[in-house]
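Long-time lurker, first post. I've been practising inverse folding by hand and with some scripts of my own, and I keep getting stuck on stretches where the structure tokens seem ambiguous. Below is the full token string for one chain I'm working on. Before anyone asks, I'm not after the true native sequence, just a reasonable design that respects the backbone. If someone could post their per-position residues I'd love to compare against what I wrote down in my notebook.
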């Protein structure tokens, strides 16, 4: 950064600044905790049985233990794309209107989670349900370590509640699937041939505003060799929607390439779990009691509303710790 030509290439300079910020976030908390531990050792030697001072040391040790746990989580997030932004998709499953409403609740949950962490959320594509909620939605979430955390959310999410759409107030079970992929940086090479693409232009649906749904500006791109379909309709112009759709396509193609390299995930990509009973990673029970439980880690929270308001870090951290053991 002290080099005179550092800012000549703003793209590379910003990339270096981002890397420095990340490295500082790793090193500084570690050094701070080493110093705190040293200070506590000195305090302990001075305490000589003084009850109040010993109690203070125990309290600070407990706080130190909590910060060390956060450092451990950060250490787990060392995958090649854990620092990347994320592209998250939600699809309503079996259950009709109830599942569409559940998909909308999940969208709110992830949006609230992102807001709490000061991440930026942008809707790329959304399809409303026929009566309520949404059939599917794709959003981008930008910020530090977003994909590293959100990869824990991939899978089927199950809701049990008394349906507000049932006049007889019966209990219903609904499902929605969540898919998360990392947003790929521009310097990652993914070959996309123009002749392999089918590009369709159509009129945007959903809420209007700023001529979004009054012109043929929405873009759908089909990658013919893989049959991957992506679309964007929330930008103001056709060109912006095309660029956004290409970004999503690039990310999905790169994910597919990684899966093929591992010689097993290409099959997983084509044969995803059905969005129904028995395939869920997490259950959200609202009646007859309230409980959210992750079936992979057994992590659970009794306050379901708190979870639906975006407090889902406990499940993400439990998943990351569990992956470290494997």
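-- Answer (accepted) --
I ran through it position by position. Result:
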């Amino acid at each position: 950064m002290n080099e005179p030509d550092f800012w000549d290439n703003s793209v590379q300079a910003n990339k270096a600044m981002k890397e420095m910020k990340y490295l500082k976030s790793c090193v500084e908390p570690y050094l701070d905790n080493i110093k705190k531990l040293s200070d506590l050792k000195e305090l302990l030697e001075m305490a000589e049985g003084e009850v109040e001072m010993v109690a203070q040391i125990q309290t600070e040790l407990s706080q130190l233990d909590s910060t060390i746990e956060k450092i451990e989580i950060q250490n787990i997030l060392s995958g090649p794309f854990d620092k990347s932004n994320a592209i998250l998709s939600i699809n309503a499953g079996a259950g009709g209107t109830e599942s569409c409403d559940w998909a909308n609740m999940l969208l709110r949950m992830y949006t609230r989670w992102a807001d709490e962490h000061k991440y930026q959320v942008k809707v790329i594509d959304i399809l409303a349900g026929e009566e309520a909620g949404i059939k599917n939605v794709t959003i981008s979430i930008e910020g530090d370590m977003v994909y590293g955390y959100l990869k824990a959310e991939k899978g089927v999410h199950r809701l049990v509640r008394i349906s507000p759409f049932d006049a007889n107030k019966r209990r219903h079970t609904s499902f929605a699937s969540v898919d998360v992929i990392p947003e790929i940086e521009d310097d990652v090479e993914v070959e996309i041939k123009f002749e392999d693409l089918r590009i369709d232009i159509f009129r945007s649906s959903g809420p209007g505003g700023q001529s979004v749904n009054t012109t043929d500006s929405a873009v759908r791109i089909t990658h013919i060799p893989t049959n991957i379909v992506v679309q964007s309709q929330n930008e103001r112009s056709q060109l912006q929607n095309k660029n956004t759709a290409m970004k999503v396509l690039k990310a999905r193609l790169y994910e597919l390439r990684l899966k093929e390299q591992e010689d097993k995930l290409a099959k997983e990509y084509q044969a995803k779990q059905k969005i129904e009973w028995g395939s869920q990673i997490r259950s959200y029970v609202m009646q007859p009691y309230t409980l959210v439980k992750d079936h992979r880690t057994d992590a659970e929270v009794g306050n379901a509303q708190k979870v639906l308001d975006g407090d889902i870090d406990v499940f993400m951290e439990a998943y990351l710790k569990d992956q470290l053991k494997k």
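A couple of notes from the structure itself: Residues 86-187+286-325 form a domain with the Alpha-Beta Plaits fold (CATH 3.30.70.1660). The mean pLDDT is 85. Happy to go over any region you disagree with.
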